[in-house]
Amino acid sequence: MTKLKQLSALALGGVGHIGTNMMVYECNGDLIVVDAGVSFPDEFTPGVDVIIPDTKFLREHAKQIKAVFITHAHEDHIGAIGYCWDDFGGAPVYASPLAAMVVQGKLQELGIKPTQGQLVVTQVREQYTAGAFTVEYVPVSHSVPESFALAIKTPHGTIVHTGDYKFDDAAPYGQKTDEARFAELGKEGVLVAFGDSTNINKMDDSGSEGPVLEHLQKLIDTTEGRLVFAAFASHFGRSFAVAAYAASKGRKVCFLGRTINKFMACAKQLGYWPASLQNMIVDAEEVSGLPDGKVFIFASGTQGEGGSSLTRLSQGADVRGIKLKAGDTVIMSSRMIPGNERGILNVINGLAMLDVNVISELNDHGIHVSGHGSREEIGKMYRLLKPRYVVPVHGEPLHLRAHEVYAKEQGYTPLRLKPGHKLILAGEGVDAAHSSSAVHPHGFNYIDGLNILDNDPLILRERKAIGHQGLVAAALPLRKNGQIAGTISLSTRGLIDEVKQQKLLQLARNKAMQTLETIFPDRRIDNKQQAAEAITKALRHTFKMERGKTPTIVVNWVDVQ
Amino acid sequence: MTKLKQLSALALGGVGHIGTNMMVYECNGDLIVVDAGVSFPDEFTPGVDVIIPDTKFLREHAKQIKAVFITHAHEDHIGAIGYCWDDFGGAPVYASPLAAMVVQGKLQELGIKPTQGQLVVTQVREQYTAGAFTVEYVPVSHSVPESFALAIKTPHGTIVHTGDYKFDDAAPYGQKTDEARFAELGKEGVLVAFGDSTNINKMDDSGSEGPVLEHLQKLIDTTEGRLVFAAFASHFGRSFAVAAYAASKGRKVCFLGRTINKFMACAKQLGYWPASLQNMIVDAEEVSGLPDGKVFIFASGTQGEGGSSLTRLSQGADVRGIKLKAGDTVIMSSRMIPGNERGILNVINGLAMLDVNVISELNDHGIHVSGHGSREEIGKMYRLLKPRYVVPVHGEPLHLRAHEVYAKEQGYTPLRLKPGHKLILAGEGVDAAHSSSAVHPHGFNYIDGLNILDNDPLILRERKAIGHQGLVAAALPLRKNGQIAGTISLSTRGLIDEVKQQKLLQLARNKAMQTLETIFPDRRIDNKQQAAEAITKALRHTFKMERGKTPTIVVNWVDVQ
Are residues B88 and B197 located together in one domain of the fold? Predict the structure, then answer.
């Protein structure tokens, strides 16, 4: 970015898709970064572990970065922090006590040691100065404790970055959205609100934790057998409250899952752990020795994740001595995240086949509320802030456009932030239309085992092709002079039953050799690329005609000594 | 099955999963088949075209098959008819006029010619005798015209096979569920109802087509620009009614999509085509010449299908001269079928990015109702039929179990039909517990190009592996005596960037050769299997350690002449 006296914004993630949140604000040449989130792979990114923002822009402007601010401890806001750590140019990273613990855990896993003072633990409503910016953490209700909006003051005006929020007077640990402070900010004057769009299309109230807890308590009261409870691990406020209630009814409590146990450790340090639970905790191995009605098991895996406790239990597996049986009850206190439906339904089906009683959003709407405010709550936030402009963020295009239309209906001026584009908000260079310009080739990086794959990687396109149409590996021996030293050898994967289809393989071999001999009548390959293309074409054509498939062809030239 | 004097049922599909419906009833040694449906591939069946029932049982009992009865023209009930045609042993196939036309189309595509009288067109409430069975077609409301339940009379009692149904007095073409006839059957005595479970977890009313049409008409009234309407092609009753209304308001109508045009041809022959539409139809190529407010386009592809008109339009493509633009309106009058969410959201996002106004279930609940009755309607059907037993079918385990619980609550006796198990309903061998026995290894066949893959195919597991973790093709030249005639050659797909990671490839080659030379110090491979396993292990280990991935390894031995 330039050193112009201007205020601008650039989204490195979180605009045009859900997750991978990362926003860069620039003021008079100083930069701050808000959040560093991941998103999760789908059918277009097979085999990938997580997806992170492309941080090339940060590396190129590392010297200008004055600070990084984390809004809350959800993976889509914090999950990439370790992968991006070295891109911040050593700038301090601000995070709440809980978020800071999560950051430390992530750094530790990657073997990163922050320098002295690089990770700063924030206080509620404290202000932090970073170059031309002053940033204040304003509490909001959300589905993890210590969630914050950021009030970002600059010489050009105030930005309110809402982060994820809702309005809920019964939020766990009393973390209400600080309406009074937002109203004050509104009175002082807000230039622009960067607002969460997640539930812009939800017309009904987002609902409160209060009735959810009451409903879950009733379910505990009326359940006689073993009880398994699954919820998002980060939403431990709900889980601990439910577990404590179950404990008060004489059930011993067992926490299954790595992530919930991590949060449990943090909760104990930070004072979020209900004292009444302490003596009711049992190890998984002790559960089978207890009467059915005296057991409460927290299981991880509300989204059908492969290795999670709940998924394994639904498959009838023995998880540390626990095996589900007819008469057990599973409460899935969560919602299906789009894209995970099939995996979640498989879990519910597995449980049904075990004659386990399943209570989920499919048959009970009282067991969960979203952490994101519905349309009406988004409107309430803007009525408090009275922003001059509204920039919809945190959403796919369908959410962002709906947010724009709603903002306009409510009398605000929406501005459109395009992925990878710099939107000038105020100062030099701002024009009446608030047009934006591309400064960063927008995309993602993909964590794939120990590789980090760049934008639009060939590797993922190859995986998609071979994963749908299969592959033929061809090999042909060549002498030093290029003379063919044998016949072509073929192996396939994901294409045909090689044992039953020997004839087809023979046909394919013949077709490939015939093609080669037509082009190179003396059987001397003086142009390997041309030869490989000919083999590829002949094999593809054969499998297309004979089997209706278009496999990937790999040609290995084998040099004979 | 045996020649015992008994009545039994065997599900070859549709029990334990959605789609692939196929039921076999047996009475005193005679068999009838109900429906022959497909289901569609998901992440576990990559590259597959459609999934059909495993019909080995039918082939083995072809002589006993007296008839095949089709309930309605939806793909999940009729889509496999061509693939299974030869498994019916020449038995007559009964289908309504519309369903018979669809069957004929499918046979034609596969080059199958039915023999004289093999495809029988049914009449409403007519009875058809097939061995020990007499089958009557009883009309029901559903989301395609000519949908029927089957009243199946046998010497052991009456089975009512509900098929897909709801209760709707405003169903297209006046096809109401024939309550009077179901009540009569109930009076005469119903032994067992095989009931649809699809919407057993829907507590609210399934809703009527009447309000949907009114709502769609209002949307047409208030839309000024171009209008694109997408709905399931088979639900042409709704589409034609909406198109006729648009035409009455002066809009010219264009039908985009192969399937809707097929249904249009059938509709014209069968009297379902509204006369008022006839002179309002335009070709796609004419659309761009019309004023925006004078256009109504039917586009196929409510489920985000790859090549469909709507998907291509959402990508900004020019579809036969039509390109969407800001200000156009798209109405998606359908619901998301589980598993298709991501693809559908991509379409909606694409439209949003074109600044097209999208009306879908996400922001308007009035644009669609399901063709399947909710829980209350399922109860209503049973109150009419008063069946001695209820067998929940057409559902995943989660639906079937919920249906069992509901049936019991309502005072009926549910029986559990397990996939591939024979459930004896009456006669010799029936026991008090109605226990069932496995007679058929339950599974599916997969149409994969021109291949038909068997149950649990290795090929699909291979695809899943290479599609997530990539592949290494290794080749090694051997002389006739087994002597290694060169070095190992490696190529990869979906794994690493070969250009950038030459060093890693070299390392992998070295590791593989070292391993080989340790096992075969004289470089003579006298055990190819052992050698291939050693290469596989060495390469896998290298890529696991260096890149965190576990690729599939293919070893090609190349014989040098």
Answer: yes
